[in-house]
Design brief:
Layout (H helix, E strand, L loop, with lengths): L12 H6 L4 H13 L1 H8 L13 E4 L6 E4 L4 E2 L1 H5 L4 H4 L3 E6 L6 E5 H17 L7 E5 L4 H13 L2 E4 L6 H10 L4 E5 L2 E3 L2 E3 L1 H11 L4 E5 L13 E3 H7 L9 E2 L3 E7 L7 E6 L1 H14 L7 E4 L6 H13 L3 E5 L10 H9 L3 E4 L1 H9 L3 H4 L8 E5 L5 H11 L6 E4 L33 E4 L5 E2 L3 E7 L9 E2 L3 H9 L6 E9 L5 E6 L3 E4 L2 E4 H9 L4 E11 L3 E10 L7 H14 L8 E4 L13 H9 L15 H8 L6
Parallel strand pairs: 4-17, 6-7, 6-8, 7-14, 8-11, 11-12, 16-17, 16-18, 18-19, 19-20, 30-31
Antiparallel strand pairs: 1-2, 3-13, 4-5, 9-10, 14-15, 15-24, 21-22, 21-23, 23-25, 25-26, 27-28, 29-30
Helix pairs in contact: 2-3, 6-7, 6-10, 8-9, 11-12, 14-16
The structure holds adenosine-5'-monophosphate-propyl ester (PRX).
Length: about 650
């Protein structure tokens, strides 16, 4: 549970005058953005280059009978032209991407001119493989520059990319290839993370046994041994030699899909979140500029992976649309040592640094000395994303990393929102550790009770959005009804975020975490249902129930209650086997932290598992279990308590 700290860190006065907006400007712009969205976004939409200018701005409906979201709907543009070509004249020789390898001896600087060349070549390689406008391309790459080239190349020819995080298993990859009927996969021989090799191509080979594709483009990263399938697999570098470096960007409608990104929900398989071209780019670039107060000459580093939405919006599309220099890091925070982040900040003179609370907590645990041996003088702004940041970690980040000099933007958003919705603006917003503070322009948050009644003033409840913003997801790929059901039917006429939230007397928002069956492990979203279905697919498991519990580093850990088949022995060896099984089914990010063998699970007489009770026991706070009288067999609870695995 997030604490509400009382400390306030006022905006430094010199920053208020230097930043894009101070508080008065924020209030004025915010008011206009909600009073006159057409006027506001009509003006700010011009920040990107349109091939055919839009004449319509907002056309959105949250009516659950007819959910429809369109922005700039008659305009046309190309995202890759906006992220690359339009910068050539003014900043062709400026670094677009600084790539830092897993091994500290490796780095590369890619200028906008070079990026232009690479994206054109990659686009032509895709063409040569038969990829056309509207086709879905699955990208399963490590954090190498080719990931950005591939994304922008898809955008250039109008193909829709679906990036699958390199930590997902072959099965998860297969499911995502199949779900969007993608015929082309872009991968690498192997990835490299923390000195360890990740067998990406071998995973693709396994995945495509279940979900066959026509073409696999393989980027050479490590030179490790792999097998190439004749007639299907090609080496990227060989194909690149055969094509020209000119590819005309395709004219796309503002509402043509740009990408699909799978994310976990409370039920069923991951959903293919669809983002479109115009509104997404306007929103990603505008938030990148204002939230990070991006200024000419900044070196901006977001430590996310492009496999997550943060990497899409704030490593690639937002920064590059703004002509920024974006740093892309292949490795992990703790390799070769727990000072790697700080070493990289000094090496490349990073000015803006954006990471996740889980990394901050882990590095805080490693001790201040690792930070203090680096200068970090270049830093001027810090950011946080992915989960609630506890005030202790916030304060450490502020004092030790930021040396008391750098504001922290705690940015709240989701895969579905495309960009940041609730956040401080560095020159405008006084900070409170642990609060994401106030809405960005055009964003209208509200807090509702269980019945959907909007609550006023200082209060607590569920977080909804009352109206649309340009970066909002448009649909679930291939299943608009699921989109409507998931987000617009809990509270009619509102977008439901799935998060709980408090608002204080200053109108600041404090996200308290998910209120559905989604858990947030190290800033990664995981559906409990997915982990349960992986567990029950093991032959020795008859039933499983998964909940989150507070974890010092990860924010939440995965706690699995497992009922075994009759006659199976509940041993430690079996626990290990189950962990290995889940890793193989979903990926290492889904590994249960604690497994409790449970002869029975608490169920109502109608057979519904009472998760509330399981959550309490996992949190080690079982003296407040509430009413258990509706349980079919109240005695199972005693056994669960006696054998609980988390004795916090
Ligand atoms: O619960 C919220 C949490 O992460 C969820 C969204 O996860 P995902 O779609 O994977 O996107 C993560 C990166 C944008 C939200 O529903 N979350 C994200 N940022 C914050 C946060 N919780 C608290 N504070 C944040 N700053």
């Amino acid at each position: 549970m997030i604490e509400m700290s009382d400390s306030v860190f006022p905006v430094p006065s010199d920053l208020a005058s230097r930043a894009h907006v101070d508080n008065a400007k924020y209030l004025e712009m915010y008011k206009r953005s909600v009073d006159d969205p057409d006027g506001f976004w009509g003006e700010h939409g011009k920040r990107v280059d349109w091939m055919k200018p839009y004449t319509k701005v907002k056309n959105t409906s949250y009516d659950h009978h007819n959910v429809s979201i369109k922005w700039f709907e008659d305009g046309t543009l190309n995202v890759s032209a906006n992220c690359v070509d339009r910068h050539l004249e003014t900043r062709g020789d400026q670094p677009a991407i600084i790539w830092e390898g897993d091994d500290p001896s490796e780095h590369k600087v890619i200028t906008y001119k070079q990026l232009h060349h690479e994206v054109n070549v990659f686009a032509n390689v895709l063409h040569a493989q038969g990829v056309k406008k509207g086709d879905r391309v699955t990208i399963y790459l490590p954090m190498i520059p080719e990931a950005a080239y591939a994304m922008l190349a898809c955008a250039r020819i109008g193909a829709i990319h679906s990036i699958v995080f390199g930590g997902f298993s072959p099965d998860s990859l297969a499911q995502r290839i199949d779900s969007c009927q993608s015929n082309c996969v872009i991968t690498a021989d192997e990835g490299l993370r923390g000195g360890r090799k990740v067998p990406l191509k071998a995973n693709v080979d396994k995945a495509t046994e279940k979900a066959p594709v026509n073409s696999v483009i393989v980027v050479k990263r490590t030179g490790g041994e792999i097998t190439m399938k004749d007639g299907r697999d090609v080496w990227y570098h060989e194909e690149a030699d055969r094509v020209s470096d000119h590819c005309q960007p395709v004219e796309m409608n503002a509402e043509d899909p740009l990408f699909i990104l799978y994310t976990s929900g409370s039920t069923g398989q991951p959903k293919g979140v669809v983002h479109t071209t115009g509104g997404y780019l306007v929103y990603a670039s505008m938030t990148h500029q204002y939230v990070f107060d991006y200024q000419e000459g900044d070196i901006y580093w977001c430590t996310a992976d492009v496999g997550w939405v943060t990497g899409h919006s704030y490593i690639v599309y937002g920064p590059l649309a703004n002509g920024a220099t974006t740093l892309m890091f292949e490795g992990v925070p703790t390799y070769p040592g727990p000072d790697r982040f700080w070493e990289v900040c000094d090496k490349h003179n990073v000015t803006i640094f954006y990471t996740a609370p889980t990394a901050i907590r882990a590095l805080m645990g490693a001790g201040d000395d690792h930070v203090k041996k680096h200068s970090l003088k270049s830093l001027r702004l810090l950011g946080s994303v992915g989960e609630p940041i506890n005030p202790e970690a916030w304060t450490w980040y502020y004092n030790v990393v930021g040396q008391g000099r750098c504001p922290i933007v705690d940015t709240w958003w989701q895969t579905e929102t495309g960009g940041i919705l609730i956040t401080p603006l560095p020159g405008a917003t006084d900070l409170k550790p642990g609060s994401a503070t106030r809405p960005f322009f055009g964003v209208q948050p509200a807090i509702v009770d269980a019945e959907g009644k909007v609550l006023d003033g200082a209060t607590e409840g569920n977080l909804v959005m009352l109206d649309s913003w340009p970066g909002q997801m448009r649909t679930v790929y291939g299943d608009h009804e699921r989109f409507v059901q998931t987000y617009f039917s809990t509270y009619k006429g509102m977008y439901f975020t799935g998060d709980g939230c408090r608002r204080d007397t200053d109108g600041y928002y404090w996200i308290t975490g998910r209120v559905d069956d989604v858990i947030n492990v190290s800033g990664h979203r995981m559906g409990t249902a997915e982990v349960e279905s992986a567990l029950v697919s093991h032959p020795k498991v008859s039933e499983a129930a998964v909940v989150g519990y507070p974890h010092d580093i990860k924010g939440q850990g995965i706690y699995a209650y497992v009922t075994l088949m009759d006659g199976e022995e509940p041993t430690d060896a079996l626990k290990k086997e189950l962990v290995t099984h889940v890793r193989a089914e979903i990926g290492p990010i889904a590994s249960p932290d604690l497994i409790q063998f449970a002869p029975g699970l608490p169920k109502t007489r109608s057979g519904k598992i009472m998760r509330r009770i399981l959550r309490k026991i996992a949190e080690d706070s079982f003296d407040s279990l509430g009413d258990t009288s509706t349980l079919a067999d109240p005695a199972v609870v005693d056994d669960l308590i006696d054998n609980r695995q988390n004795r916090a």
